[in-house]
Amino acid sequence: MLLEYSFKNFLSFKDEMYFSLRSIENLREKFPDNYISDKNVLKSAIIVGENAGGKSNFIKSLSYLQFLFKKNQPIESALKNVYDGYNLGNKTKIIDTTQNFFIAVLVDNCEYHYTLEIDCLGIKKEVFSQIPLNKTDEEIIFTVERSEKNILLTDTIDLIQLANRAEKPLIELNYDLQVNSSIDEQLRKILKRTASDEHEGLNISKFAILGIKSAVTFSKWINENLFINISSEGEQYSQTKKLTKDDLRVLNDKEKFLPILRMIDSSISDFKLDNKLPFSDTIIVRVDENNRRYEHDLISDSAGIRDFFPLAIQIFKIIYQNKVVFADEMDHSLNPVLTYKILSFIHGSEHTGQFIFTTHNVLHLNLENYTKEQIYFVTKNASNLQSELYSLADFPDIDYDIGNDLYKFYLRGVLGGTLNE
User: What pLDDT, in 10s, does the model give residues 40-73?
Assistant: First the structure.
C-alpha cells in the first residue's frame, strides 16, 4: 500500500509537494468502503486541475523515481526534469539541480520509508528505514550522504557546465555510509566499498542484490506493485504494445476479467485475444437478444472500448493482485456513469490495492462518494509557471454537508485549479 509520497524541483513543481493516502480524519463510519480493511489507508484518490496545470507532471515525478529503481545505472538528476530547466529551457545556467523524493509504503504489515536526494553530479543523500509491525520507533537500515567538501570545484564553475565537461575525473565524490548494526560485517564492508561508486545506481539496489531482506521487499514493491500510466506520453497502451506475462495471466482469467470489461458494454459476451497485437487485433464478441453473434476487432470498436480494455487490466490488478495504479486522465473518453461504476467496484471490493487518477470530470468533486483527503487539486501560477499540489482537506471551512455541490465551488475558482483563477 502507498502511504505517502513527496517530491521537489521536478518539471513545473519547484517547491516540495506532498501526497498522502493515510487518513488522519477517520470517517470509516461515513465512508466504510473507502478504507483498506482495518487500516486508516484510503483505496483511491482523484486529482483535478486545469489543462497544462501539472497533473501529468506529478505522475511523471513518481514514474521517474520508479525508473531509477528499474534501471540500475548512474544516478543523476535529468536536467530537463528540474524546475528551471523545464520552464526556462533557454537559460545558460540552471540555478538548482537538486531533486528530492520521499515515499512511504506498507508491505506485509511493515512500513518502509525511502528518501532520495540527487543532483546533476549524482546521489547527495539516500536513507532507507522501516517500522516493523507493533513498533512505533523508526529503524534506520542505512544512510548514505555525500561529502560536499570533497567536490574539487572553484566557485566560478557552474555545476551544469561541470556535469558536461570532459574533466570529470577532477570530481572526487566521497560518501559517508551508516549501516544498521544487524547487517553482517562482511556485507557492511562490501557496501561501504560500493557506496562511493556512483556508477552502480541506487544504494538500495545494492542492498537488495546482496539479499538484505528489507531492501529486497521494498524494491520489489516499487518495481512490481506500482503501475503508472501517463497519457501525455501518447496513448496509455499503443496499438503495437506487447502484453506482459502478468497481463496475459489477467486476460486468461476470463471469469474475473470479463465482468470488468462488461462494465462498459453489457452486450460483450467474450473476446478472442490476439497475442501479437492485443490492443488492436483482439476480437470483441457481442450477442444480441436474438442470440445473433457479432465480432469486431478492437481497433474498429468505439474509442471508449479501446481505452477501457487496457484500463480493465489495471482494475483487475487493483482488485485481485492488490496493485497500486496511477492513471493519467483515466476517464477522458469514458461516460461518467461508467467512471462511477469503476470507483464503486474498487471501493466495494475487499483488497489492498489503490487507484489514483487525474481527471477533468467535475462530477467527481463530491463529498458523498469521497472523503476530503481523497480529493486533490493541481494548479499553476500564471506569473512564475510553478505548479502546486494540495488536498481538499487543506480547506477546513469546506463541510461535508456541501455534498454534490462541491463542484460549484471549484467552477467558481474558490478551490483553485481552474483557468479563470
Answer: 899 999 998 888 888 889 999 999 999 999 877 6
Mean of the per-residue pLDDT values of the chain: 82
C-alpha cell at 124: 547527495
Dump the DSSP string for 63-115. HHHHHHHHS-S-----GGGSHHHHH-TT-SS-S---EEEEEEEEETTEEEEEE
CA Rg, the chain, in Å? 23
What Cα–Cα distance (Å) separates residue 229 from each residue in 116, 189, 245, 394? 23, 40, 18, 27
Closest by alpha carbon to 43, among 260, 257, 263, 319?
A: 319
| Four-residue CA torsion sign, 264, 265, 268, 274 | negative
Closest CA to 375 of 415, 329, 338: 415
What is the torsion angle, in degrees rounded to the nearest 10, for the CA atoms of residue 380, residue 382, residue 383 and residue 384? 30
Higher-confidence position of 249 and 419: 249
**Four-residue CA torsion sign, 384, 390, 396, 399:** positive
For 228, the enclosing helix (H) or strand (E) is: strand 226-229
270 three-class SS: strand
| Cα distance between residue 362 and residue 359, in whole Å | 8
Does 165 score more than 80 pLDDT? no
Residues whose CB falls within 8 Å of the CB of residue 388, separated by 6 or more in sequence, listed in order: 13, 15, 17, 54, 378, 379, 380, 381, 416
Extract the C-alpha cell encoding 212.
538484505
* Phi–psi pair at 4, nearest 5 degrees: -145, 155
CB 42 within 8 A of CB 34: yes
Report which residue type is found at 81.
Answer: N
Q: Kindly state the cell numbers that stand for 227.
A: 503501475
- 283: amino acid identity, one letter: I
| Contact predicate 415/421, CB 8 Å | no
> What is the spatial distance between Cα 409 and Cα 396, in angstroms, rounded to a whole number?
14
Q: What pLDDT is stored for residue 198 in this prediction?
A: 54
| Span 169-187, pLDDT tens digits | 455 667 777 777 777 776 7
CB atoms near residue 412 (< 10 Å): 10
Report helix, strand or coil for 321: helix
Sheet (strand 110-119) strand order:
17-20, 2-8, 99-107, 110-119, 122-131, 139-147, 174-179
How long a stretch of residues is the chain?
Answer: 421
